[in-house]
Automatic annotation (TrEMBL):
Keyword DNA damage: no
Organism in which the protein naturally occurs: Flagellimonas marina
The protein's name in its UniProt record: RNA polymerase sigma factor
Record PANTHER family: RNA POLYMERASE ECF-TYPE SIGMA FACTO (PTHR43133), RNA POLYMERASE ECF-TYPE SIGMA FACTOR (PTHR43133:SF45)
Family membership noted in the UniProt record: Belongs to the sigma-70 factor family. ECF subfamily.
Chain ranges of the RNA polymerase sigma-70 region domain: 14-80
Length: 164
């Protein structure tokens, strides 16, 4: 691979790396798993980059590769690493008091989203990233109508999970 292509890839990756971090946060529960998935997604992006034609925005293509890598990797993975939930150790950590309402709400939302299927997780993620249904459909490889229908169903699932 030539240096110009390598430079373009590194620049695009650096400018959009938060996309990969957000995907990793959605599909992992601890820092090591997050780092492993980040590395795997970066490898897959690098491998696929020479075939990136620019038909879509780089970020849209990056979402697609990152989500597909995360879904594929964790579907294939038979073993699940048992992790200790933050709530079970929070009493051991000394912290100054602060209003954690937003964090608790975000944690509840992440916990609810983690209960969804892989495609539904990706759909919610893109929706929360303020992607329109055209971009969501393009990223997930489904029709725009299908994306809307699935999103309505997912919203109902999340309501049920969050308000039993």
């Amino acid at each position: 691979m030539n240096k110009e292509l390598e430079h373009r890839f590194v620049t695009e990756l650096e400018n959009n790396q938060n996309i990969v971090h957000k995907v990793c946060s959605l599909y992992t529960n601890d820092k090591d798993s997050h780092n492993d998935l980040f590395q795997e997604i970066t490898i897959q992006l690098w491998k696929a980059y020479p075939k990136f034609r620019g038909d879509s925005k780089f970020s849209t293509w990056m979402y697609r590769v990152a989500l597909n890598t995360a879904i594929t990797l964790y579907r294939k993975s038979k073993r699940r690493v048992k992790t200790q939930d933050y709530d079970s150790v929070v009493h051991k950590i000394k912290a100054d008091p602060y209003d954690d309402t937003e964090e608790r709400q975000l944690k509840l939302m992440y916990d609810a989203v983690r209960q969804l299927g892989d495609i539904d997780k990706a759909l919610v993620f893109l929706y929360l990233e303020d992607k329109n249904y055209t971009e969501i459909a393009e990223t997930l490889g489904i029709t725009e109508v299908n994306a809307r229908v699935k999103m309505n169903r997912v919203k109902n699932k999340l309501r049920t999970i969050l308000n039993p």
